[in-house]
Specification:
Radius of gyration: 18 Å
Order of helices and strands: HHEEEHEHEHEHHEHEH
Helix content: 25-40%
CATH architecture: 3-Layer(aba) Sandwich
Strand order of the largest sheet: 1-2-4-3-5-6-7-8
CATH class: Alpha Beta
Number of strands: 8
Structural class: alpha/beta
Shape: globular
Number of helices: 9
Largest sheet: 8 strands, mixed
């Protein structure tokens, strides 16, 4: 049992620490800050009352409504910020697509269910305000990395028709990157105390135990250089959804690790970007 617990800790926590690069994170932050200075159309727009319930919108010049990519940053639900992960925006603006990056409240002050509620509220805000912003509410893609991949996957399983009030019938596609889709194993790691979930809570908040609505086009991407446990997370979700007759595309991206695979959204020719662009019609 001890060996298994040590393995889980290494796979989900220690290995990420090994992959972290302060130089890479500084580069991401610098590129994102430049995007905000030069392309940010609406910065720190509130979608709720809490200080972290804010989103940034990067808009292309267009007389007609444009599609949008809605992006959720990672950080194990306890860290991270949109201001450090917005650098893919130019690739999408140049394609005639809006790029929306959100913040959300964090652990341990905010429980995971409420963090999910923040992500849901942000997307509903975009849907209901799309016309005024210049976004086509029928062409919104969602994506996120790591913890953001988990939140995006949970949003992909929502029945958006239940919300009404201007929310459209659904979303165009989901690109789920290096996500945590089965929360059960995390309860046995040092992240377990921060999550403070019961096994029943973990089951309910795990996308692997839910299904996306309406045959939603889904790509599940994980880096080739990620730990076996993170690869398991992506493969488990793909296998689960395929078992129910759905067709998610699983991509193990060569030469990418946990902190570099999502950067493929900044490359207009990457498999990730082409998947989203095709489903948005750009």
């Amino acid at each position: 049992m001890t060996k298994m617990l040590d393995w889980l800790e290494d796979q989900y926590v220690t290995d990420l620490a090994r992959q972290k690069s302060s130089d890479l994170f500084a580069e991401y932050a610098e590129r994102s800050a430049e995007c905000a200075r030069t392309l940010g159309t609406h910065i720190d727009v509130p979608y709720g009352d809490a200080p972290r319930q804010r989103l940034d919108i990067y808009m292309p010049a267009s007389d007609a409504p444009v599609p949008a990519l809605f992006f959720i940053h990672g950080g194990y639900w306890k860290a991270g910020d949109k201001s450090m992960r917005s650098f893919p925006a130019p690739a999408w603006v140049n394609r005639g697509c809006a790029f929306i990056a959100i913040n959300y409240r964090l652990l341990p002050d905010t429980p995971l269910a409420s963090i999910l509620s923040d992500a849901r509220s942000a997307l509903i805000w975009v849907m209901r305000n799309a016309e005024g912003i210049g976004i086509d509410p029928a062409r919104i893609a969602i994506s996120g990395t790591s913890a953001g991949g988990h939140l995006s996957a949970m949003l992909a399983t929502e029945d958006w028709r239940a919300y009404g009030g201007g929310a459209p019938g659904g979303i165009s596609c989901a690109a789920l990157i290096s996500g945590l889709f089965d929360l059960g194993p995390l309860l046995a790691t040092s992240m377990g105390s921060a999550l403070a979930l019961t096994p029943a809570d973990a089951h309910e908040l795990s996308p692997v135990n839910r299904l996306p609505c309406d045959q939603l086009p889904v790509m599940i991407a994980v880096g080739e250089q990620e730990s076996d446990a993170f690869k398991y997370q992506s493969k488990a979700l793909a296998n689960r959804w395929q078992a129910f007759g759905l067709s998610p595309k699983l991509s193990v991206v060569p030469e990418r690790d946990h902190f570099t695979v999502f950067a493929d959204l900044a490359d207009p020719d990457s498999e990730l970007s082409c998947f989203v662009a095709q489903n948005l019609g750009v």
